[in-house]
Specification:
Distance between the termini: 48 Å
Number of strands: 12
Order of helices and strands: HHEEHEHEHEEEHEHEEEE
Helix content: 25-40%
Number of helices: 7
Shape: globular
Strand content: 15-25%
Length: 321
């Protein structure tokens, strides 16, 4: 129910509630002669920024290049290119925004990736959003495959229906992603080989610390059966970055974790985002010793609004240290 009314709620807050709150604040802290003018000016600025974020900010995106160096990386994978995208929310890229999805697919393919990974949240709420977009994602090409994991929106947690229908809908989402051409990893892994060397691309189901976040991810199950010697280089896909410190760091030795989920708050003010108050890792690369997590700020969003933080496609180049 919350997700279904996310856009009206957002507009109510930024167009009505926040301006009224600022007006009340200014009334008590500013001289009588200026508080009205200050309130009106702030309201106009807020409305203008909101309009810009919906009409133009959401349409912007960038290709971001980062490197991750590790002594554990096999020599044959030095220079290996992984293209990550996350939080597509294709239900927000329909109609007049359909071109945005094709632009993103073309940009991903233009990177000539060794592997493409999608780190969750393909749908907004319902699996019926996905089949009409399948033809776009079938265009994705990478030498070693196109991998994906589920995000919290890809489960049925935001659907207003009974448990039986939710289970059915989860199955529809899984089928739709497979039909799109993704190798969907549900607490599973794949071995990628270059001659006698290999790395592991592992995919956990969603595991989050926040209320209502699905907790289906299982680190041990995801990595069971790996027999590579010496200890393998593991790229772990996990939608929710809060899982990194709670589960991944203490329970396995995955050198690099790729996540999404936060959208970077969809707002950046001089490099700061309000989502930083909820997530310690919410965008970019964070290191813990020789291990790291990269959190993508996402490609799309349930609420089609971005301000100072464009959508992104990330090219991660692995380097031998």
């Amino acid at each position: 129910m919350i997700a279904r009314f996310a856009i009206p709620f957002f507009l109510l807050m930024v167009l009505v509630v926040v301006p009224l709150g600022l007006a009340l604040l200014f009334r008590y802290i500013l001289p009588r002669k200026v508080w009205r003018r200050t309130s009106i000016a702030c309201t106009i600025i807020l409305w203008a920024l909101t309009g810009y974020g919906f009409l133009f900010g959401f349409q912007q995106f960038e290709v971001r290049h980062v490197e991750f160096a590790s002594a554990d990386l096999p020599e044959a994978f030095d220079g290996y290119r992984i293209v990550q995208f996350s939080d597509a929310h294709v239900g927000s890229m329909t109609g007049s925004r359909q071109w945005m999805l094709q632009r993103a697919i073309d940009s991903i393919n233009a990177q000539h990736a060794d592997a493409i990974v999608f780190t969750g949240d393909m749908q907004n709420i319902w699996p019926d959003e996905l089949p009409r977009q399948a033809s776009y994602f079938r265009q994705l090409k990478a030498k070693d495959g196109v991998f994906a994991v589920l995000g919290n929106h890809d489960y049925a947690v935001y659907q207003d229906c009974d448990e039986t229908e939710k289970t059915t809908n989860c199955g529809k989402t899984v089928k739709a992603l497979c039909d799109m051409g993704f190798d969907l990893l549900l607490n599973e892994h794949r071995i990628v080989r270059r001659d006698s060397d290999s790395i592991v691309i592992a995919g956990m189901e969603n595991w989050g610390t926040k209320k209502r976040m699905p907790r289906k991810g299982d680190v041990i199950k995801t990595l069971t059966g790996i027999t590579i010697n010496p200890s393998p280089f593991i790229v772990m896909l996990q939608h929710d970055p809060s899982c990194w410190r709670e589960k991944i760091l203490p329970e396995c030795n995955a050198q690099l974790t790729l996540s999404g989920h936060t959208h970077g708050g969809q707002i950046s003010l001089l490099g700061w985002s309000p989502v930083a108050m909820s997530y310690s890792e919410w965008g970019g690369m964070t290191y813990e010793g020789a291990r790291a997590i990269f959190v993508s700020t996402g490609l799309g969003a349930l609420i089609p609004f971005r301000l100072g933080l464009p959508g992104e496609i990330v090219v991660i180049t692995l380097k031998k240290k």
